[in-house]
Design brief:
Length: 581
């Protein structure tokens, strides 16, 4: 491989050689009257000129230099044979190491220059001994020695340039620029050195959203801090190495087989490290990760990646690979699910189900949340089976538009209130937002609709979201924030956007019966929401104990399986007597 700097120098050497040889040819004709050498110089300069010009048409610089190398080599040999005693005769050898170095490589370039030097000097020695009868150590011969030294110095100089460049390229290939950790190529090489080994792939959950929340620089800082913590952790174990793979993925390589118990212990420690708060601009952020683990003898990277994909898909903190997991099966399942999803869209089998939200004060069902389902041969398919797949297949916005249309149509003939979930991707999709505006105009039921936004997406950072909220409020729609109190909770968000409802995250609600810290947090959130004029909704109310605790803490509404499961139809008269809790 050659550097751009070397390539440019060779190119300029050729043009300089062209002009010098052309001028020398003219001098041979006009001053020296050596017509043979004059013709040689003219032919040589023309050959160099045509080689340089041809580069503009074929864009092959290596071929261009090779042609020039042949032309100049012949020229030098003719000069050496015809007028070897002239001191300037050997100056033409100077460009050749560079050209040979480029076309043949470093070693071949040095050998070529060396043998050309020997050949010319044999001609010179023959001329000095048998023709000129001069002293062997003439100025011309000393000049040739000097030229040889220059050749060696130039060649070695450019070889060092090349080695430096190759080292830079190797560093880029084998080491991550941000964290300084070895990359995938190095991991592949290290894996080959061990027969028994264990590999853990660590993927940060929702890293794309983290970048959206705190910017690319903030995302880089999160990666740096995560790498520092994982590196410190890996240093506790001998021969354990940490690698940086894709933008949000790390790999921990452990020589030797590990028992399931020791692997679980390692995973728990890694999870604890990753979940430690990261302070950015006086604010804290908590991240989570999914992990795939494998100890297979062959294709450990592939099997580990399968386990990671399964962990993501099943929303588990980690999955340990076994022979029942394989790529063909996973791909086949994805293809089958995608086909089912596409057919469901085509046959209008994407339907909304409705889960009641209970008013804790009036003891009635206050409204319904519209939740997506897929019908297949009389069976109902959970969104966990197809929602993530729809995002990867770029058809998620289509599902949102179907939900909006069918939910609006269903509630247009009643006075019941209902809510629809929207992601940031939905709001940033202009086709989807225009569809929502159109449906609001068509059905004129804005007063019944609440749009729920995911809090974790820091929606206030996007002007499109604020514009969307203004537009739907002009139709008298309400706005809710979903999953508040989870990992990215930001109280500033409640000050920037006036929400009508705040849905408390289920991970907090499910712990209130046995975790006093969760109860303190909920009391704070309820009090804060009340002062802002927002109502609170408790998710994940699965039993009477939780329901009673929710009422004691002053939460306005309850939602969960204890209140009612999502159903395809709603009860027309939802009172406490007909919907006992």
């Amino acid at each position: 491989m050659i550097t751009e700097e070397l390539s440019k120098r060779v190119y300029w050497f050729l043009w300089v050689s062209f002009f010098v040889i052309a001028v020398n040819g003219v001098l041979n004709f006009t001053v020296r009257h050596t017509y043979f050498m004059g013709y040689v110089c003219i032919v040589t300069s023309l050959g160099i000129f045509l080689s340089c010009i041809s580069f503009k048409y074929n864009r092959n610089m290596k071929l261009t230099y090779l042609r020039a190398l042949i032309v100049i080599t012949i020229h030098i040999l003719i000069i050496a044979a015809y007028e070897g005693s002239r001191p300037s005769a050997f100056l033409w050898i100077l460009p050749l190491p560079l050209i040979a170095f480029y076309t043949q490589g470093a070693r071949a370039g040095v050998l070529y220059s060396f043998f050309l030097f020997i050949t010319i000097n044999l001609i010179k020695v023959y001329d000095l001994i048998f023709i000129s009868k001069n002293n062997f150590l003439t100025p011309s011969y000393i000049e040739s020695i000097t030229i040889f030294i220059i050749i060696i110095v130039l060649t070695l100089n450019f070889q060092l340039i090349l080695q430096k460049k190759e080292k830079q390229i190797k560093n880029q290939l084998y080491f991550d620029e941000l964290t300084g950790l070895p990359k995938r190529k190095q991991l592949v090489q290290d894996i080959k050195q061990y027969f028994n080994k264990t590999l853990i792939l660590i993927n940060i959950d929702g890293f794309g959203r983290i970048n959206s929340l705190i910017g690319i620089e903030g995302g880089d800082y999160v990666l740096e801090q995560t790498s520092i913590r994982l590196l410190k952790f890996s240093a506790q174990y001998s021969d354990t190495k940490l690698y940086k793979l894709s933008s949000d993925e790390f790999a921990l390589f452990l020589p030797g087989l590990k028992s399931p118990g020791s692997i679980r212990k390692l995973v728990d420690q890694i999870n604890a490290i990753i979940k430690e708060e990261i302070i950015i601009d006086n604010s804290s952020i908590i991240i989570t990760a999914s992990m795939g683990i494998s100890s297979t003898l062959e294709k450990i990277l592939t099997t580990c990646d399968i386990a990671l994909k399964m962990a993501k898909r099943q929303k588990k903190p980690y999955v340990i690979y076994n022979h029942t997991l394989n790529i063909p099966q996973l791909h086949k399942q994805n293809l089958v699910q995608l086909y089912k999803l596409q057919k469901a869209i085509e046959n209008e089998n994407i339907v909304p189900f409705f889960q009641p939200i209970y008013d804790n004060t009036t003891n009635t069902v206050y409204k319904y949340e519209c939740l997506i389902r897929l019908k297949e041969d009389g069976q109902i398919i959970s969104p966990a089976e197809f929602l993530e797949l729809s995002k990867g297949a770029k058809i998620y916005p289509v599902l949102t538009r179907i939900m909006v249309s069918k939910s609006f149509e269903y509630f247009s003939s009643s006075d019941f209130l209902f809510s629809i979930n929207l992601s940031l991707d939905d709001i940033l999709d202009s086709v989807t937002t225009e569809h929502i505006y159109s449906e609001l105009e068509k059905y004129n039921i804005g007063k019944q609709v609440t749009f729920e936004f995911l809090e974790s997406e820091r929606i206030e950072q996007f002007p499109e979201v604020l514009e969307f909220i203004d537009r739907i409020r002009s139709h008298d729609c309400s706005v809710a924030i979903d999953d508040f109190g989870s990992g990215y909770s930001n109280f500033d968000l409640l000050l920037k956007i006036q929400f009508d409802y705040i849905k408390l995250d289920g991970s907090i609600i499910r712990n209130i019966s046995h975790d006093w810290k969760a109860r303190v947090l909920i009391e704070t959130l309820v009090d804060y929401a009340a002062k802002l004029g927002a109502k609170t909704i408790a998710e994940y109310v699965r039993d009477k104990v939780t329901f009673d605790m929710v009422n004691q803490l002053g939460i306005d509404y309850s939602q969960g399986y204890y209140i009612g499961k999502p159903e395809e139809q709603i009860l027309k008269n939802c009172t406490l007597a007909l919907w006992p809790v």
